Structure formats: C-alpha cells, structure tokens
Amino acid sequence: MNISDPSDALAKSSFTRAQVYTDFAGLGELSAKGNADSSEALHEVARQFESIFLSIALKSMRSANEAFAKDGYFDSSESNLYRDMLDQQLSLTLTQGKGMGLAQSLYNQLSQYLPENQRSRTSAGLNLEI
C-alpha cells in the first residue's frame, strides 16, 4: 500500500474499526487480514494500542480522584460501572482520525521492520538484525 501522507493513513484504513468498545469482531478481521497488508495492519494495531493506553490513563486519573468522591452522591457501584463504560468509549472516540499522536509515532518506529521495508534495506546494503 502506497500512502502519500503517512499521518493520514490511520484515518484511511479499510479495516473495520471498533466504534463501540464492546466490538470484538474487528480484532478477528485484523488478525485474518494482517498477513495480506502488514502496513495497514500495523496502522490499526498502533491505533488500538493508543486506545488501550488512553483507557488506562483515564482509569488512572479517575482513581486519583476517588479519595475526594468518598461518601458523595456519585459514589456507588452503578455509577462506577457507567463511568468505566464511558471511559472505554471515550478512549475509542479520542483515537479516531489522527488521535493523540501516539499511534503515528508507533507506526513510524515499527514500520522499518515490515517485510516490504526489510527488502529495500537489504538491497541497499543496510541489513540490520532484529
């Protein structure tokens, strides 16, 4: 796949992206199509990693405020459940399009190890061991 602007590649992925955090079908599709187009698969995996990272960061920020919320109106197991669901969906929504930038940085770092880039490095005499 030849993409002229690598920063826009995450937005143009043909893989089915998870729009809701409970959608696991996209992971199976990513696994099946990963061998056919490893560059596009790497873009999607980097985006999913960014989403997971953001989810963990949101959860950590919520837990830092738990000391202030004790015995409050919103301190219940039901409220915590809905807050966790909101954070999961928010992490997916924030990583759509260009996202936060972590996915693009991961792609830039890891794309040099893709098989199509390894062939060009070998022919140029830059064969580096992984």
Short recap of the structure:
With 130 residues, this protein is mostly helical. It has six helices and no strands.
Low-confidence blocks of residues: 1-14
Order of helices and strands: HHHHHH
| Percent strand | under 5%
Category by helix and strand content:
mainly alpha
Shape type: elongated
Total discrete domains = 1
Q: What is the count of β-strands?
A: 0
- Termini separation: 23 Å
- Helix content bin: 55-70%
Please give the largest β-sheet. none
Give the rounded overall mean pLDDT: 75
For the CA atoms, what is the radius of gyration? 19 Å
How many alpha or pi helices? 6
Describe the structure.
By secondary structure, the protein is mainly α. The chain has one domain. It is 58% helix and 0% strand. It is built from six helices and no strands. Helix 2 runs antiparallel to helix 4 and helix 2 crosses helix 5.
Key words describing this protein structure:
mainly alpha
Write the layout of secondary structure elements.
Elements: H1 25-33, H2 38-64, H3 66-69, H4 77-94, H5 102-110, H6 115-123
Helix pairs in contact: 2-4, 2-5
